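ugh ok fine here u go
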Amino acid sequence: MLWLFRSLLVLFIYTGLSIYIGFRLFAFGKLLRPSLKHRFFWPIYALLTYSFILIVLFRLDRIMVIRITAMYWPAFFAYLFLFIFLFDFIALILFIFRKITFRRTFRLMPVGSGAALCLTVLLLLYGSFHARDIRTISYQLSFSAGNTGEKLRIVLVSDLHIGPTVGKKWTARIVDRINNASPDLVCMAGDIFDSGLEGIIDREAIATELRRINAPLGVYACPGNHDTNRRTRSLEEIAHFLLDSGVTLLLDELVQIKTEKTLIIMAGRRDARPIGMDSRRLTLEELTTPVTGILENPADAPGKDVERSLKPLVILLEHQPLELPQAAELGIDLVLSGHTHGGQFFPGNLFTRAIFKNYGAVDYGHWQTGNTQAVISSGAGVWGPPIRIGTNSEIVLLEILF
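structure:
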């Protein structure tokens, strides 16, 4: 019952803020067109305000206008509220210090609402173009593992969210970025799809793009919370699709990857909170038990070309960076994560930063404690509003020196 109470409280607060914004927009509309009637404005405004709820309840995402509206509305609402509140606050301060009269204060409010609306639209236009500009972010990391002097190039890509928004063209730009980085190994840290395979319009086109990834040591992935199949409550179909696309999905599994003289142990975890699916998964201790044996007896590691006296590099693919301190305690060398989107657009980054700080981690960038390092990407795609403000769509190039 607690979740129901919280949901109703959030809905109540959201409705109150929506009414506040609605009256400000209505006042601005009357300033432009005095004949604006309630019967036209408020029903349309209510439809926009609750468009995301209509999609969830009645599966109206197939109607293009409603789907696009629902995607953009959260960002539109957030920025419009911030700008309107700022203008109203300035007007109130001017009134308190007797710079303007009480009547003048109310006359300025519609003007402030109009300015807030224009600024919001311009900001969202910028965010829409910026989200499609995929960057390459580089980190140079060193580890006391493997063969001294050997180098390795790993590309981390997360949160593609392939589906109705991130389609073939967007996916092609991501793949081009990956190949331009000339990686030896590619790691996908979850949320490859937006709502499982069901949201993909052209599966074969997406599979063709993923097959273009060029990485001599392979492409490995772990699932994210959006990589779900609610109908079958299984990841089997997704795993088969990815394997056919040249990507190996690791579901609480370990694989051993051999370079010329170094052994890499790659571990991939199931997600901690998959949407609509069972969240049971192995603990980090259970997953890494075989690793402990190899670390204690490197000579037992298979592979003729591997220098068996050297410590292998242990990499963990973990969609959500929730257990980084625990990974450090278990001696994992490198954790690769995503999920946070870096907040995707301001002020979301303030919330994600606070949330993951509470877990002893970070929501974006490089993290290190002792001999364990982690890199958290803001993702190459988007979820919800197809915009980025204050964050980048990115792939991450890790230049590793042993």
